[in-house]
Amino acid sequence: MTDTTMILAGPLAAPKLADRLGVSGVSGTLPGRLSGGADAGLGGDWPAWQEDAGEIATLHVAPTPALRRYLEVMGLVPVSAGGQTVWGLGAGGGTADWTPDRADLMAETARAILARDEMPAAGIRARLARIAEIAAVRLRAAAEPDPVAHLPAPQPDRVEITARREAYGRYFAVDEISLRHRLFDGGWSPELHREAFISADAALLLPYDPLRDCVMLISQFRIGPMARGQRQCWMLEPIAGRIDAGENPAEAARREAVEEAGLRTGGLYALPPHYPTPGSNSEFFYPFIGAVDLSGHEDRAGFGLAEEGEDIATHIMRRDELVQLALDGQLQCGPLITMALWLDRMVYKIRSDLAGT
């Protein structure tokens, strides 16, 4: 790559991404249309150019170090399209076309990429989908209302971060953070050094058949009990999974129901979202009760995605049995206990809402 002017096309020309990469220039157009590449910059393919009616936005810029680094991480090369040599196009994989509403998430993902200035480009590229999931978390958290009851006002200047680095990153990540924060008496804490387990947000689903008053649970091997030294390493749980970049919690819950239990879900009843372990973990849960018809289902094994090492079994039981398991200490998955008790408390309203009566 030289210091001469480059033509950025499609996703790369989106104003928010260009701003994040520190480039500006002269706007233009490229004849044709974009095909595929909905997850460009998020771990998927970049859109392909199709010779067709229409125009694709372009931006003529001088490259910046940030742009060079971004192109290296993405593995992008110049391509010929419509008589021009442009950057920002690829093979066009995926089932959906790239659209400008993806630019916010691309820009936030780019911010996370550029912060990893010491990491090899290939290493970032291998983890790009995970990095994009965390970027989506930041956007989601910024858009949601903060709790305020009995708490200090959620002001950014109440916390001062003095250092932060990713100490480990693969499927999950661990950040080392140094900070100080305001005390209740108005002073400042000493500098604190903490580690935080960084994860994408997760959607949880407890399938409930309102006509039969039954639920479906899943069970699978879990590393946590094993690492703690517990002999029983299989756990009863709700259906759950991380929310993909560009996906909303309800979409994730429905997708996970298909992957983990072969279930098509009807209406969803949202329970309060929450942090399961806020003292050390950034993971945030969006739990749902989902209306299902369990008449054609039975206890089975063999669900889950093989590429994620999942081996999942399903279990159908009456709601009162679920509640008794929670009260007897036979459930050790905290979110499932909460969901079971919420269902028991709200069952008449939920059955009315989900049954449409």
Keywords for this entry:
357 residues; alpha+beta; Nucleoside Triphosphate Pyrophosphohydrolase; 8-stranded mixed β-sheet; 3-stranded antiparallel β-sheet; 9 helices; 16 strands
Characterize the structure shown.
- About 30% of the residues lie in helices and about 30% in strands.
- The protein is of the alpha+beta class and about 350 residues long.
- It folds into 3 domains: about 110 residues; about 45 residues, no CATH class; about 150 residues, Nucleoside Triphosphate Pyrophosphohydrolase (Alpha-Beta Complex), CATH 3.90.79.10.
- Helix 3 packs across helix 5 and helix 8 packs antiparallel against helix 9.
- The radius of gyration is 24 Å and the shape is globular.
- The mean pLDDT is about 95.
Summarize this entry quickly.
This protein has nine helices and 16 strands. It is of the alpha+beta class. The protein is globular and about 70 Å long.
Q: Radius of gyration in whole Å, from Cα?
A: 24 Å
Number of strands: 16
Taken together, the total number of domains comes to 3
Which class of the largest domain in CATH terms? Answer: Alpha Beta
Q: Low-confidence parts lasting 5 or more residues at pLDDT below 50? A: none
From the spread of the alpha carbons, the general shape counts as globular
Structural class: alpha+beta
Note the gap between the termini.
64 Å
Kindly report the CATH topology of the largest domain: Nucleoside Triphosphate Pyrophosphohydrolase
Q: Helical percent range?
A: 25-40%
